[in-house]
Amino acid sequence: MITDKTTMRSLGNEPPILADGRRAPDRREISLRWLSGTFLTGITSSLLMGVALFAAVDGRQQLAIPAEAYAALGPAAGGAQPTAAKRGDRILTPSIVAKPSDRTIMEVSTMIHDGEKEVVRRQPFAHVKMTLAANHQPTDSYPAFDPLAIFSNEETDGAPPVSRTGTLYGSDVESEVALKTVDFPLKGSTLKFASSMSLDEVEENVRTNGSVLTDGNTQIASLFYVDPRRFASDASDLDLIQGLSARVVEENMTVSAFENITDQSAEYADDVIPVRRATPIANVMINAGYAKEQAENIAGYLRPALDAKELQEGDVLRIGIIQKGENGEAKIVRASVYSRGSHVFTMALDDTDHFVKGFEPPQLSAVASAFDDNGTPAITAGYDLPRVYDGVYRAALSYGMNSTMVAQIIKLLASNVDFQAQLKPTDRLEAFFSVADDSGKATDDSELLYVNARFGDAETRFYRFQDPDDNTIDYYNEQGKSIRQFLLRNPVPNGTFRSGFGMRRHPILGFSRMHTGVDWSAPRGTPIIAAGNGVVEKAGWDSGGYGNQTLIRHANGYVSSYNHQSAIAKGVTPGAKVVQGQVIGWVGTTGLSTGPHLHYELIVNGNRVDPLRIRLPGGKSLDGNALAQFEKERTRIDELLAKDNGSAEVAAAQ
């Protein structure tokens, strides 16, 4: 029988070969070291392979949002070259784009005329973007809704208003600059000409400034061709290094090509929506302005994940969107839910455009400050929304406007907006106006330069402009047409419609005859306003049954007639000029009348027409030199606002 001892001897018991006189180690010691080394090597190799595999497949089921690369290129969006990459840098830094601010104070150069001089100075302007349905808390009170106050205009002196802001200047100035334009003296000039430059001085200037005049510079088009070898350095026949720049790219790294950001480039942003009361998930998004289909789609994914149909008070819904252009459709690519500041759940689009569970996105300070008073206010529920009139006043006053400026906006929008209607969650108002300082508060000297109002599906956009032909200041749409109506259809804003245009039985005469106007009923003494600008043609008693009558001749053959007045306003006499909204008389029942009302007629080229159905022409239209100057002013305002809208706030992850 072979024993274990015999087996061990059969393996050999010769001592190992020694070197350097060292002690011969025991064979058991060698075996343990070998086993330990082999085991540790295997474990280490497995861990390294596992880490490499995990890094290779990590995030395959998550959406890699390409638009986040644009966020990392924030400063480069304005045309600057991206900074040189270094070894170990990430292409996408751990930062995301937050929702742009809805209030910005910017310094803008403006120019006003002071006699023969043009004074250019910098002054602050406020750019605000208001969600009217939000729960705004204005500090100042505002007047109650009064239709007469909206349409009335007491500027009867005819003097053009003074422009305190002037026009936007095309370039920035550091301080106040006075410009004076004089004719170039063609004869008898007193200016002395400097001595001619020597050839050495010319060549020195070329050497000094030659690097600036490279290909692509517009200045080079006006220069004569000069042989470059003439100004080359002495070390070589041609200096190819001058004016060139180089960038060293390290090995083993990828550098992506720089892409210019345009108006149609995809941009990524986070919309942070605080929840102030228990609300269904879809309603939270609908109230924030998202389409019903989008809201229902997101809610369908979040309901089973959260095991709830509603978001509770204190929750925050964070929506990641990608949008191309200002008017492009916003695509939702990620949605996260936070409860009391802690992350609850995130879903994101994968490569197949399906929502899957995702990791928590980088932290955003806007989530923590969602319920701060300085943050974007929450939108109230649809049944709690106020009237359009109240919504405009509350939002505008809370964003720094004063009552005078808000009343001006109300007047300008009165012909297109029903201020008695209820606000919609998507109603918004954008404005650009001058302020006194960085506080962003409007003063009595502030002027409104731009308004973009969206109510439902209708959008109204207009710009302030002073016509150089007659120095009148008005507001025009993008095509240079005044947004003011040519004629108002109702000269009694507080009145009630009683009788229309057409055949009817006369209440006094007792037989049918043509009713050549429309009747507006109102209490005796209710003010009557002029339907448009014009010249008074008649103001006095009419023997044909109209009682106290006023006829106003307008442009292009239009005449408006106001009848049965109790009295005619002072100063409304034949030949006097009146403006739209000016009080010209008061409701009465003079002449053939059964009660206090205004019989209003509109006469076009001698023919009486229905004032409520006729298609009225628009207001004043700019043309020629005035239209060209307006387009320049409009372009400067658009560029300023576009630059402000593109300056997205970048918030780094904690």
TrEMBL record:
Record region (Disordered): 1-20
The organism's place on the tree of life at top rank: Bacteria
Cofactor: Zn(2+)
Record-linked Pfam families: Peptidase_M23
Protein name: M23 family metallopeptidase
Protein source organism: Rhizobium herbae
CDD domains noted in UniProt: M23_peptidase (cd12797)
Gene3D superfamilies: 3.10.450.350, Glucose Permease (Domain IIA) (2.70.70.10)
Domain M23ase beta-sheet core: 513-611
Amino acid composition bias (Polar residues), ranges on this chain: 1-10
Signal sequence coordinates: none
TM region positions: 32-57
Keywords: Hydrolase, Membrane, Metal-binding, Metalloprotease, Protease, Transmembrane, Transmembrane helix, Zinc
